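In the design runs reported in the main text, the only information available to the sequence generator was the tokenized backbone. The following block is the verbatim input for one such run; it is reproduced so that readers can re-run the procedure and compare outputs position by position.
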């Protein structure tokens, strides 16, 4: 009887929560002489009335549990999720909006109503009841597209798998070696909380040298790093840009557990990019002089035209971090040091 009254109390809440929708559905009532009845009142004028014709039927009603009531209603159960739809709204355009869902398993009952959830656990010696609000499920379309922005810091790993030390002329300054990516992405839902993400974007990389006295120049056969003692250097870097295609598989544990954006999200997959440009830039000032000068050279001749690697993402709530690692080297074979770019950042 406890579950029975709980169910119909929640059904009463539906009329309050969806008052704006119900105005499109006229309700016809007629006065009936009642011998025995259960009346649940809510709001100013709302009522749920259960009428029986005899005292014997009324006594039987009190003994019925939620499973018997559902059986009498001949409701269809979703075999995959174990959910039963108790109340639904049929709109004028023919679409159906499910309002009340019930899930029962081994002494545990969960009722979801219009963004509210009541959880009853009778599996132990004591009955526990938990009430939550704000649990309305957000729409999760099977396919969607969106834009995002990558902002990260760059470095690279040498042939030993380590970050180059400061004594190397090409060692980068972590803060200032930026990567910016503009991406158009799409997500195809495979199953609940499981997605295939794919898209294309423009990525811009800066590798800012820690030792600003070294300048990257285009030699006859390879890129060269020369030390400038004739000027006072301010900035030295290599930049490159790519058109990049990415594909990943994503697991959204929040969607799996019906928690929306409040769950952990992880994704991983390969990417491939084609180089659009590349140059070196050196900013300096003449010794005992004033004013700054810029020296730019096209060093793209020695950069790999094709880059490919693995991207990983991890997020919680509205925050998402990413990392990328190039499986091939930044420079063409024999045209520069053996360096594999790596990036860490955040997705907006």
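Verbatim output:
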């Amino acid at each position: 009887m406890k579950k029975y009254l709980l169910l119909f109390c929640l059904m009463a809440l539906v009329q309050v929560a969806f008052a704006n929708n119900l105005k499109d559905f006229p309700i016809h009532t007629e006065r009936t002489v009642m011998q025995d009845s259960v009346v649940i009142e809510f709001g100013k004028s709302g009522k749920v009335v259960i009428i029986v014709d005899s005292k014997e039927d009324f006594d039987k009603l009190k003994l019925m549990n939620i499973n018997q009531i559902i059986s009498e209603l001949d409701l269809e159960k979703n075999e995959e999720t174990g959910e039963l739809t108790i109340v639904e709204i049929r709109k004028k355009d023919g679409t159906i909006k499910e309002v009340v869902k019930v899930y029962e398993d081994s002494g545990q009952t969960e009722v979801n109503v219009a963004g509210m959830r009541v959880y009853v656990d009778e599996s132990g010696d004591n009955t526990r009841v938990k009430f939550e609000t704000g649990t309305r499920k957000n729409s999760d379309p099977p396919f969607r597209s969106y834009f995002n922005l990558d902002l990260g810091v760059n470095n690279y790993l040498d042939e030993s798998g380590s970050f180059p030390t400061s004594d190397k002329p090409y060692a980068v300054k972590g803060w200032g070696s930026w990567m910016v990516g503009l991406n158009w992405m799409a997500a195809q839902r495979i199953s609940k909380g499981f997605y295939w993400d794919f898209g294309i974007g423009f990525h811009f990389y800066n590798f800012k040298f820690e030792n600003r006295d070294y300048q990257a120049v285009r030699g006859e056969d390879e890129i060269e790093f020369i030390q400038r003692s004739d000027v006072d250097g301010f900035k030295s870097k290599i930049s490159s840009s790519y058109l990049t295609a990415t594909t990943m598989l994503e697991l959204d544990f929040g969607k799996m557990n019906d928690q929306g954006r409040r769950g952990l999200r992880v994704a991983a997959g390969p990417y491939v990019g084609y180089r659009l440009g590349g140059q070196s830039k050196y900013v300096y000032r003449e010794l005992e002089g004033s004013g700054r000068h810029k020296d730019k050279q096209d060093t793209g001749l020695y950069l790999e035209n094709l880059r490919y690697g693995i991207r990983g993402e991890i997020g919680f709530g509205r925050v998402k971090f990413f990392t990328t690692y190039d499986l091939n080297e930044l420079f063409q074979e024999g045209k520069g040091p053996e360096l594999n770019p790596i990036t860490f950042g955040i997705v907006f």
